[in-house]
Amino acid sequence: MAGMIYTFYSYKGGVGRSMALANIGMYFYLQGYTTLLVDWDLEAPGLERYFEKRFNLNVSDLIDRPGLIDIIKDYKELSLQPLEDDTSDEKELFPDLNKYLFALDQTSEKKLYLLHAGRRSPGKTWSEYASFVQTFDWTNFYEEWEGGAFIDWLQEQFRTKADIVLIDSRTGVTEMGGVATQHLADVILLICSANLENIDSTARMARNFTSEQITKARNGRQIEIMVVPSRIDNSDTDGYKEFLKQIENVVAELPVAKIDTGHRLTETIIPYFPAFSYRETLIFGDRETESLATQLAKSYSNIAANMELLNISKRYERARIPERNLTIF
Prior knowledge:
This protein is α/β, with parallel strands linked by helices and 329 residues long. The chain is built from twelve helices and eight strands. α1 (17-30) crosses α12 (294-320).
């Protein structure tokens, strides 16, 4: 069956979004799912760092390989080439996704794939990468380059390649973030911190992602929303209780996914863990690390369990509603 696409989004940075994605991806992989992780945070890439020690990954070599932005570049180059005849296969219009994916674990039948942000070695390729990201016009891409068809193709390639697809989105309100959320996602995990601005902004984005306008643009395919409070310090008992009351009241008014048999919101709160606040850390798959961070591991696994429940329910809906090319800007 085709895989599910989950986009991890936060209105602001510094809330542990990438760490949550990396660990939940590792959890799914260890549970036997073929898992694909996509670094769509193009302005601040680096998802590969979480896997450097675990898989003895040479990051310098990896980022010298083509990645996400290189798929887009190659697609545009292919689009400019004339077709040899009117019967040319549609596949010739698109690159081969396998060229850009990297299998982090080469020994297992079930794979953990990484699609990093793009070739950006120090020097010339980094300058080219930065220039591409800063100047790329997503609206023009959709309108003049049939970008919607390309993203539709990429979406189906992701689904075919993996059981679980996790996309790390750009923060804030951006065009590139709009592609990762509004166009690609089946489910959006809204990661937020405890301050009022973050909670209010997260609520606004939840309403936006589930608005009639976006649902219509997606041909009636509703986005499911999960709100995940992150890096929450529960050492101040009174303050923590007040936060719980506040976040539960806010979420109760939002169009979030209904998971009747899943974990409650309070069981999916990602706690603040000072020891892991200053480095990229994978918890799952290392017994010593898991024993040091049992609360974090429990929260991540509870979130993954709720995601699995949505995976089951959304497969049927997606089979009924065809996806077509759309413009989200």
